[in-house]
Amino acid sequence: MHMPIESKFFDKETIEDTLNDPSQVIPLLQIVQEKNGYIPEKAIEEISEITGVSISNIFSVITFYKQFRLRPPGKYIIRVCDGTACHVNNARMLLDILNDELKLEGTDTTEDGLFTVMPVACLGCCSLAPVIMVNEDTHGKLTPQKLRKIIKDYQRKGKENH
Amino acid sequence: MYKITVGMATCGISAGAEKVYKSIETLIKDKKDVKLAITGCMGMCYKEPLVEIFDGKTTYLYGDIDEKKVQQIFESHIQNNTPIDELIVLKDYKTGPEQEFTERQYKIVLRNCGLIDPDSIEEYEARDGYKAIRKVITSMTPDEVIDVIIKSGLRGRGGAGFLTGQKWKFARASVSDQKYVICNADEGDPGAFMDRSVLEGDPHSVIEGMMICGYAIGATQGYIYCRAEYPLAVKRLKKAIKLLEEKGYLGDNLFGSNFSFRIKLKEGAGAFVCGEETALMASIEGKRGTPRPRPPYPAVKGLWGKPTNINNVETFANVPWIILNGWEKFASMGTEKSKGTKVFAIAGKAVRTGLVEVPMGITIRDIVFNVCGGIKDGKKFKAVQIGGPSGGCIPESLADTQIDYEQITKTGAIMGSGGLVIMDETTCMVEMARFFLNFTQLESCGKCTSCRIGTLRMLEILERIVDGKGEDKDIEKLEELGEFIKKTSQCGLGQTAPNPVLTTIKYFRDEYEAHIKEKRCPAHSCGALVKFIIIPEKCTGCMVCARQCPVNCIIGEKKKPHVIDQSRCTRCGKCFTVCNFDAILKD
Ligand SMILES: Cc1cc2nc3c(=O)[nH]c(=O)nc-3n(C[C@H](O)[C@H](O)[C@H](O)COP(=O)(O)O)c2cc1C
Ligand code: SF4
Ligand code: SF4
Ligand code: SF4
Ligand code: FES
Ligand code: FES
Q: ipTM for the complex?
């Protein structure tokens, strides 16, 4: 066993608890994802050093699970529910509108880094379908008009804070 | 004396329960005789936010509450002791405008959901919590426990419906220095929230069920594998485990015996296939969650190669009730082979949607028309989709099918874990099949060629059909591919992925044919196959649609009704989404 490494991402206790334990790869990734919104390369190196799992194996875990991102997300993460209840209530149209309004052509993040759009399965409030979540705020019973207004509001807010 | 309780499950919070809670808090600040509490899902998700007032005698449930109504209720009910009848949805859990919703329900799994504060062990104990584990430890042998569970007829609620007691018996029979109990809380069906509601509303009943299982099979370590997207459930579970450890209800020598049990919480990371038991165990071990062949079954070789028993959240929540109320009472409910109750998360086009627990044996018709109040907006009932992406649809003509594992399987669907989507005449069955297949296709772990490539081929065909580009023989190709994938895939994901397609073909072949041969969507739903028409009476001539149409095929003068040139319209649907006056019709 070697000495705990100097870390940018984890505190000493976490490192001690997870040292040389391959089953801790996912929990460690979750800590990084939670704090940074994505997994920087440096973090992968550290996790490899801590758990003893090879970098390529960690990569294969990251790409397997949807929760992990390898690139930083936008300032506002828009989760568009495409679970069953939202789907039968026209959730696809919301996605089309977002792609159109935010000019997302095949990417998930806007050029100005303001928005990241992610389709997800069920946000847990099906009775409000169709639903989106912008960061921590839920917006339900959406219509195209309401959605466009919400985007405009966040665009304004985002610019003001720039 | 008043007790005010606010429903604070995920959906309640999204609907605004937090604001409601805060405004009540402010209003009652100086009132010593009013207590404010939170609870989990009360089931009536369609009436969220929900606020309950108990005056020592009667319980009044108010629905659709906002800050303004809180003020009204406070002034009238709390200050002047006059309940506001128009806002009450249910009195004493049984009478009132919404009573039909509760009449046919019977609550075992949800016995405490929406009644107790999920963060309070005391409230759980006040409702017979942790009595079953005490009874088991002090007066029953492990074999007796297993015998009771077998006799109750309880079957796994995670999908496959295997006899729970039998599974415990296998795990007990395995000899090992270490065994594990796992609670499968990965709830992957997109649009189902039974397990989440139980975890958020009554985590202790699940934990107690796991303890009893640990005692019965001889395991001292439990794991709960909870879906990543359930932050509130995770928070409440963490808190419950911590409180139990502090109180000495988890740890060594529990309740004065030599039985020891601990629980660790593992959060999933977003992969549907991790709900499959072998994939789930791989994920706990820190690896990619790919299934492995069975046998060996987990009862023989499970987590880290040790004997493991894995059950679903709802399965565990039934266990303490069965121990305390007796297997006879449980087995007296339901059909010959399906006993007890089943929880369903009801979504879709019904008047009432939410969480219900009904006795096995109830018919689908009864659920749709009585519990859920029929279809919204006077539309016609068409089918239910049961069992999520692994399940299938059951048409109106078979609505008298009973909720029973075997009867549902006979229709081509499966009981599944409890997702129930009610569909009306405006839901396109081909599009629904495409939706579920798209989901499973993306979630395939890619290990088996038939599942990885086969579902992709099927999806391509379905996309073609809903796009109006279906070809002769497409239906036959789907059937062939579907049967092949079912036979040759290794795990349940591939084996069941074709079900939504095959059942819709079985019952709604004419809809597939209409799409393919006539390029027509009978439900008027598939964008590429409908016509967009402007209703002149509603059109204000605002010109918004004309400006947005990508092919400039909307013609009209300012302030005069516009018209769509159908010969040039590409049916992109843009105009439909931008009109602020509901003036564009999909036909
Ligand atoms: C693709 C796939 C996904 C599954 N997802 C879940 C799930 O989310 N929750 C669950 O309890 N069981 C799920 N299962 C079933 C589990 O493999 C397992 O049978 C179940 O957890 C056993 O518990 P039970 O006997 O109490 O039902 C899934 C199976 C497959 C093949
Ligand atoms: S059937 Fe599909 S999900 Fe299951 S193991 Fe095979 S490829 Fe993976
Ligand atoms: S947007 Fe609606 S109201 Fe305005 S011109 Fe078009 S159809 Fe008429
Ligand atoms: S559906 Fe598209 S192409 Fe057709 S009229 Fe509307 S906006 Fe124009
Ligand atoms: S399906 Fe959208 S919130 Fe559940
Ligand atoms: S009543 Fe809110 S989650 Fe069901």
A: 0.89
